[in-house]
Amino acid sequence: MPHIPFEPGVPGIRGPMVFRPETAKPLRQLAEILLRSTNTLTPGERELIATYVSALNDCHYCQTVHGYTAAAYLNGDDALVDLAKRDPGHAAISEKLKALLAIAAKVQQNGKLVRQEDADRARALGASDLEIHDTVLIAAAFCMYNRYVDGLATWAPEQDHIYRDMANRVVTVGYTQPGWEKPFSNIQGEQSA
Fold it and tell me: What radius of gyration, in Å, describes the C-alpha atoms of the chain?
């Protein structure tokens, strides 16, 4: 049960965003820029970074919705996303992305743990300075998003189809389009359980 009252049927980060729309706008814009804007990292790779950090933070809502979003961008490969968030070293992803995920994991623990050799390793594997920058910022932002979601004890639905629906909306229209604040009326009863 959330620590403060949110609109019924509005899951995860959407609840606090409906509660405080003036802070929702810049948070949504940041997600749009970091995860969907033009970049040499694909949206799927950036969503995978967000998913991995959210899994490390044990944020069920964020790791699930962003995991399905990553999979949607990565040819529907749920198994790849699942392995990458549990054991990126054995996932079928590029060595560059593995190095970036290692940086993201350090940021998730404490930004001061990232060393020059981490950036040098990623760069040696083909990462640009912008990719290193954006990896750090995605990791830092998702620590904030995860703590926002879990710090207010927001509602995280159990049904996977809800997360897939949200992921499909993101892939289709992004993070800043109208409609994100609408409740999922067919599952409101689950909240009180």
Answer: 16
